[in-house]
Amino acid sequence: MDRVSQVIQGGYCIGCGVCPFVDASLAMRMDEDGKYQAVELSQEHSDIASRVCPFANGEYNEDVLGKEIFGSVSGIQHDDVLGFYLKTYIGHAVSGGFRDKGSSGGLVNWMASKLLAADKVDAVIHVKESSDGNVMYSYQVSRSVQEIQNGAKSKYYPIELSEVLDYVKNHDERFVVIGIPCFIKALRLLEEEDESIRNRIKYHIGLVCGHLKSSFFALAEAWESGIDPEHVKNVDFRYKLPDRPANDYAIKATGISNGKPIEVVKPTRELSTTNWGYGYFKYNACEYCDDVLAETADVTCGDAWLPGYQSDGKGTNVVVVRNSDILDLLEKFSSETQLEEVPSELVVQSQSSGVRHRREGLSYRLHLKDEAGEWRPTKRVSATDNIPRNRKRVYEGRIQLMNESFTAFHGAQESGEGMSFFVRHMGPIVKAYKKADNPLWRRIARKVKRILSGTR
Ligand SMILES: Cc1cc2nc3c(=O)[nH]c(=O)nc-3n(C[C@H](O)[C@H](O)[C@H](O)COP(=O)(O)OP(=O)(O)OC[C@H]3O[C@@H](n4cnc5c(N)ncnc54)[C@H](O)[C@@H]3O)c2cc1C
Ligand code: SF4
Ligand code: SF4
Q1: 3-state secondary structure of 140
Q2: Looking at the structure, do residues 58 and 144 belong to the same domain, yes or no?
Q3: pLDDT tens-digit map of 141-154
């Protein structure tokens, strides 16, 4: 088995916070790039720390865990991207204001509330605004619909589980946890080791995941909107704009400007940092991840990034159900949702670019590591450089965009120039990347097509 120390020293830690929970020789800290990272307090770590780490435990991967958890569920099917699944849906919550308050269709918080209402759990573990002045968001425990709704929306922000796991350890209650795929995998691995955690975490709601951001993302968004990093209080990453398509959303940043409280709403299309394809401020670990749809969660929700749904700015979810209790819940409260059962391929299609980056792209990144003779995690995808030349340039470009975004943000802070430094630093790198992503032959082909069809 690979070791947790290889993960940490190789830069593959996603900062989930599960290893410090099982091993006092490890701790969490926020690094200079705004990412939670595990740190080694001594050289020796227990085997259990390596067994619970989602990047160290390559043998106990999502296929193996998924089979163990869902393999014997009646009617279960399997797909390479979705993992195990019973049914797949597209839809949204219709009651309780969950959709208005949510990032997309509001089904994640709606489901958590229904698990509470149906007395399936006593509390919900999810990410909410933090009262600790050092971070904007953290994992917390909610016990009422109101408390759950106060924590609506996606937090593209560093979070970790160690403190909330201490809470679970000290409270003999039933919990549902909401999390991104690698965090859910880490919890499942922990549950293999720790009976009390296994007995208490009754359900896992997964979020589809493109990648996780360092705290620089929130700071940079707010800074470009007119609030200095040291005066930002909070960023709502998914502020819905009336009458705009779902993917044309804004951010809402709050803080202090010229000594007065300020609130700014800025469409993400006007910000230089929000193109998800560029992957600014991404954790390096995300480049070595192959689970897009939280394959070990009881149910997973994401955005329906699909023609026909994207135009509805109120937001729509894709849903993958793996646990029959969740199916029963959807049925029992069906009057509170608008759900359409859809072919599983449609859900896969809704995440096509994320999947390509984590299949074809991952295989090439693994090849690059192997070629350099560097340790890297064991993945379900094999290393290869047998992919088209322009795609190699795209994936190399994305690594550079990720790395340089941190350098550029430090430069923006140190130079005193602010985000104009950032934009200037990133400019040529973005230009080269765009050229690779949209090569000359493709531009010519598009032009010829336009001329032939008379649309120019
Ligand atoms: C880092 C990240 C990357 C994502 N990438 C994609 C993507 O590539 N494609 C896609 O389709 N969807 C992605 N999502 C999911 C998407 O943004 C929505 O969260 C999802 O569609 C659920 O929307 P909703 O309206 O049902 O959720 P809501 O009803 O708004 O509920 C969201 C719930 O999730 C919890 N939560 C928010 N952020 C986090 C977090 N970081 N960790 C754990 N819990 C959290 C909240 O506390 C809340 O309980 C991502 C989410 C995150 C956090
Ligand atoms: S990914 Fe999680 S378990 Fe692995 S080293 Fe980092 S904090 Fe520890
Ligand atoms: S991309 Fe993978 S590793 Fe990164 S946060 Fe999402 S699930 Fe975790």
Answers
A1: strand
A2: yes
A3: 999 999 999 999 99
Q: Are residues 180 and 288 in the same domain?
A: yes
Residue 295 Cα, ligand 3 centroid: separation in angstroms? Answer: 12
State the pairing for strand pair 299-303/201-207: parallel
**30 and 122 assigned to the same domain:** yes
Q: Give the position, in ligand 2's atom list, of the atom nearest the Cα of 15.
A: 7
pLDDT tens column, 299-323: 999 999 999 999 999 999 999 999 9
* The two structure tokens encoding residue 314: 């109120």
Whether residue 311 sits in one domain with residue 403: no
> What domain range is 370 assigned to?
357-452
Helix (H), strand (E) at residue 79: strand 77-79
For residues 64 and 92, state if they share a domain: yes
Specify the DSSP class assigned to residue 282. B
Residues with pLDDT less than 70, the chain? 1-2, 455-456
Q: What is the pLDDT of residue 2?
A: 60
317: in domain:
yes
Judged by its nearest atom, the ligand closest to the C-alpha of residue 294 is: 3
Contact at 8 Å (CB) between 200 and 187? no
CA-to-CA distance for 56 and 110, rounded, in angstroms?
Answer: 34
The reply to whether 19 falls in a domain is yes
Name the phi and psi angles at 362, rounded to 5: -65, -40
Which of 40, 53, 57, 291 gets mutated to test ligand 2 (max ligand atoms within 8 A of its CB)? 53
Residue nearest to atom 5 of ligand 2 (CA): 13
Task: Give the count of domains, the chain.
Answer: 2
> Phi-psi region for residue 57, left (φ > 0), alpha (ψ -120 to 50) or beta?
beta
* pLDDT at position 286: 98
Closest-approaching ligand to the CA atom of 350: 1
Q: Tell me what pLDDT residue 444 has.
A: 81
In a domain, 231, yes or no: no
